Amino acid sequence: MNKEIKRIAVFTSGGDAPGMNAALRAVVRNASFHDLHVYGIYRGYEGMIDGDFERLERGDVGNIIHRGGTILKTARSERFRTPEGRKAAYESLLAFDIDACVAIGGNGTFTGANIFSEEYDIPFIGIPGTIDNDLFGTDFTVGFDTAVNTAIDAVDKIRDTADSHNRLFFVEVMGRHSGYIALNTSIGSGAGSVVIPETNTPIEELIDILKKGARRKKLFSVIIVAEGNQTGNAQEIARMVKEQFDFYDTKVAIIGHLQRGGSPTAMDRVLASRLGFHAVEGLLEGRENVMTGLVNNKIKYTPFHEAIVKPKRPDKDLIRMAEILAL
Ligand code: F6P
Fold first, then answer.
1. Closest to 68 (Cα-Cα) out of 255, 258, 253, 226
2. Which member of 87, 114, 170, 204 has the greatest number of CB atoms within 10 A?
3. Which atom of ligand 1 is nearest to the CA of 17?
4. Low-confidence residues of the chain, pLDDT below 50?
5. CATH H-level superfamily of 144-260
6. pLDDT digits (tens, 9 = 90+) for 51-67
């Protein structure tokens, strides 16, 4: 369709991720550079349905690049899953004369945008903002690097107490159905092993690894467990290991939402700025219903339906390396 774009709306949706503010800043600043009017929508699709829009100018996004969370707030919208909710959202966009939308979020956000694009004629462009790094079409999502750094920082601390007490710690990290955070945390923290949904390490294999460690007089160990794996959550895995192998005193730590907060790392700020900038460029080039990503350090646009459906799995070589280095 490609009608001229003069007014755009931008929103953050789904789980917040460090760097969302940096992406928002880049969108507003580049759009302003191109003389577009920008509206921020509060609370994602919820605010779109309720007409919770506010004009954003260059100055409104100053002093936010370093802040975690999202100044636009976010939500997981049940109402947008319904045709009535999407109709109300479309009417809000018409009421504000919006020609195109920039959606900053993850899988659920782009699933919603994809359905909306089949029903209505307002183009969307996406920026991958999720700590999970589970979207096809980008090597990294905004927030992933910060989340991994936070998790590694936590594991470093747990390692001190594990070492002092000769304990075995199972540390559960986020990632929904994806093992990226766990695998990278494991490599970066020098953990003893990792259980991720992509491999679902059987409990016997884990016990074997621990036995090998005990044989070489390893007095403590930290195992990273990705939420969403099929072997079990950290509590269950700890119990199963303890039943069959009681060499160590066993403890569990769940890092949880700590991984979602905090000031974004340099890598996330730069990534978010690049993706935000190129989301606007993409819209002006007539791209629609695509996600802006970075593949091999180059900007790439991937259709929403591919970004959300195509599997993205951690590199097999990285998994093998993690196993070898941990031994
Ligand atoms: O998608 C990001 C994420 O943090 C996942 O890693 C996690 O499974 C989920 O969100 C938690 O969602 P909520 O904050 O709604 O409980």
1. 258
2. 170
3. 2
4. 1
5. Phosphofructokinase domain (3.40.50.460)
6. 999 999 999 999 999 99
